[in-house]
Each structure stands twice: as structure tokens, then as C-alpha cells.
């Protein structure tokens, strides 16, 4: 089988009996597989267009690094929410502002690049906002 011209990722996998198998991504959301999968290695392009081999442990390390960044950003967002909560308390404003929350959801939906669908990213943000609201109430 000839790989499509728009191949963006290739995942090379070892079969259960040592026979090689491969999964090819065609750039349009379709994968083709051959053989049984035991161990997979994914090849991505780095900034210079070179193929970089990444196995599961490499991807998990990348996820750990991303999680550290996400936690730091959520903490910064919490500090901002806490400051807003103090201003709300001083001005006798309610913690819950549905119009503002809808504006946040609309903004997040607008900037969502995928691969999560808008509904999925909104699920994440609903929880983040719920926690931020609880922080504002707790600090009040």
C-alpha cells in the first residue's frame, strides 16, 4: 500500500511475533494499520523538519512537562480570580456572574485549535470556573 502524499505522522509498531506493522496517518483523520501491535514508536517532525522518534515514555515525559505548565497557569489564573473576588467583595458584587462566565466560554470556544471539540474544552473550563468561584467564596 502506498502512503498518501499528506503523511504527517508515521507510527511504526512491532508485531507480536516480531513481524513489523505500521500505522500511517494521512492528515485527514484516517489511519491505516497492518499487523498486530505490540510496541509502537511515533515519528514527528521537529522545527527543522527532521524526523524525531518518540516512544510512549517520551510522550509521557512531554505530558508531564505540559502538566507542570498547566498547573502554573491555573495557579496564576487562581491568583487573578482571587483578586477579582476581593474587588467583588469590596463592591458588594455577587461571586456568580453568568454573563461573564458565558463570555469566557465564548472566548475559549473561539481560540480552541483542537483536537478537543468545543464541547470537550468547555467541559474543562466549566470545572475550572467552578473551582475559581469556590475560591472566591472561600476567600470572602
Q: Summary?
A:
With 140 residues, this protein is α+β, with helices and mostly antiparallel strands. It contains three helices and five strands, in the order βββββααα. The chain folds into two domains: 9-54, no CATH class; 70-138, Chorismate mutase (Chorismate Mutase Domain, subunit A, Up-down Bundle).
Q: Structural class from helices and strands?
A: alpha+beta
Overall 3D form: elongated
Tell me the strand percentage band.
15-25%
Low-confidence residue ranges: 1-39
- Domain count: the total is 2
CATH homologous superfamily title of the largest domain:
Chorismate mutase
The main sheet comes to: 5 strands, antiparallel
Topology, element by element:
Elements: E1 9-14, E2 20-25, E3 31-34, E4 39-45, E5 51-54, H1 56-90, H2 98-111, H3 118-138
Antiparallel strand pairs: 1-2, 1-4, 2-3, 4-5
Helix pairs in contact: 1-3, 2-3
Amino acid at each position: 500500500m502506498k502512503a498518501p502524499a499528506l503523511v504527517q505522522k508515521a507510527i511504526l509498531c512491532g508485531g507480536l511475533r516480531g513481524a513489523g506493522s505500521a500505522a500511517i496517518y494521512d492528515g485527514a483523520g484516517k489511519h491505516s494499520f497492518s499487523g498486530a501491535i505490540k510496541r509502537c514508536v511515533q515519528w514527528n517532525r521537529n522545527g527543522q523538519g527532521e524526523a524525531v522518534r518518540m516512544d510512549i515514555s517520551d510522550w509521557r515525559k512531554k505530558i508531564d512537562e505540559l502538566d507542570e505548565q498547566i498547573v502554573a497557569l491555573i495557579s496564576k489564573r487562581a491568583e487573578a480570580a482571587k483578586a477579582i473576588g476581593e474587588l467583588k467583595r469590596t463592591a458588594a458584587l455577587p461571586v456568580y456572574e453568568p454573563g461573564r462566565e458565558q463570555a469566557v466560554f465564548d472566548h475559549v470556544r473561539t481560540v480552541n485549535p483542537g483536537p478537543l471539540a468545543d464541547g470537550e474544552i468547555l467541559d474543562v473550563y466549566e470545572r475550572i470556573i467552578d473551582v475559581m468561584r469556590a475560591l472566591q467564596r472561600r476567600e470572602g
